[in-house]
Amino acid sequence: MNCEQLALLYEEYALGVLEGEERAELETHLARAGDKCIAGVAQARWVVAQLAHAAPDTQPPATLRGKIMDAAKPSADMARGVVPVTKPKASEPKAMFPAWAWVAAALLALMTGYTIRQINNQNEQLAQLRKQMKLATMQNQALQNQLDMDRMVAMVMMSPDSTSLKLMPKDKNMPMVHAYLHPHMGVAITADQMPSMPAARTLQLWFVPKSGKPLSVAIFHPDATGEIALVAPVNMPRNEIAALAVTEEPAGGSPQPTTAIAWMAQVN
Amino acid sequence: MERILQRDSAALETLYDRYGRPVYSLVLRIAQHPSSAEEIVQDVFLQLWRSADRFQISRGPLEPWLFTMARNRALDFLRLKREKQRRREHSDSDILPSAVVRPDPEGDIDRSRRAEKIRALMTSLPEAQRRAIELAFFEGMSHSEIAAATGQALGTVKSWIRGGLLRLRESLAEAIS
Questions:
Q1: Is the pLDDT of residue B52 over 80?
Q2: Separation of alpha carbons A21 and A222, rounded Å
Q3: Which residues 163-202 of chain A have a CB within 8 Å of chain B?
Q4: Does B143 contact A17 at a Cβ distance shorter than 8 Å?
Q5: Pick the CATH number of A163-266 from 3.30.450, 2.60.40, 1.25.40, 2.40.50
Q6: Is A31 on the interface with B (CB under 8 A)?
Q7: What angle do CA A27, A54, A183 make, to 5 degrees?
Q8: What's this model's pTM, rounded to 2 decimal places?
Q9: A199-235: per-residue pLDDT in tens?
Q10: What is the CATH number of domain B1-89?
């Protein structure tokens, strides 16, 4: 089917009723589709989401609001805590030298090496600008890659075909890791407030089969802010996956887990 | 959303005041279990709180994002519950309390109009077609599952759902444009 024919299926896809070849063909198309198709699916999701209004209007329990706000409070407090407090600058001491001394010093500087310094400064500035430009290009590329990855994560998270899983930490002080298992687009992993890791270690995600050895899915690190957001391909049939597990491994990952499971979720 | 990104908890309160009720209504309709619905709604709003930056990147309006997340979470719960029921071979005795319908003076006018349109549209659909769409949206069933549940031919079910979604799109055309 071409782009226009597939566009007729967007609402059914968003509703989650498509199956078999139709769904696989549409998802394959979306995985490499342009902005127009992505926008078409987004609009279809909006249309289908409106069906939520067909549910009987029900007042939530009065306590629910408080529970949500209590759960959000620690990170709000933390965010407030990290806002840098700008201290008033102490007043600069006033110059102690008389004006004639400054004039003499300036004249001396001009006579001894003004031209040479200017050339050196310009060369240094040029080298500095080149370094900054190279760094900016690299940062831009990294941001673009992150943006692409975050879009993929958002697509998997929002897909009606994704199964949401919570990987519970063995260590109660560690945060929970969320996984969204999609049959075609892959498995999205998200987490925040993760502790930093030494460069020599990495986290590794495994599919634990109902029988046999765990299969490595991806290796990853929390970023500088402690967040994880990635999508990895599903390399095992969905009905054979018994659990998702994360272990800490040496940099580069291991063929099989070498440490105890740090996070795990059963797949039903 | 900017304020959510800055971890302004007052912004989360505002969002909950605006969307908490329709999200809870949707989740309760799917999950059919008040305490689980409460847990799912809490999870959805905290997901929004935690993943606001990812929502920004997806560049869509907030409401469908929230509804989609809520629906997916509630359907996950429903599937899990059905699987457990199937394994244990006993039925859940939780009873859904009758829905409390009240006016929503704080709700957004556009949203209220859209909600009215959706309800009017669903009421206007033939019973079988409405049932097929409800099974898809609130029960998470696929074309073939709906065909099996209703005893209708697969082609008939596809035609009902496609026709219903087309009418839904047409009724919301003004809002889309």
A1: no
A2: 37
A3: 163-164, 178, 190, 192
A4: yes
A5: 2.60.40
A6: no
A7: 20
A8: 0.60
A9: 889 999 999 999 889 999 999 999 888 889 888 888 8
A10: 1.10.1740.10
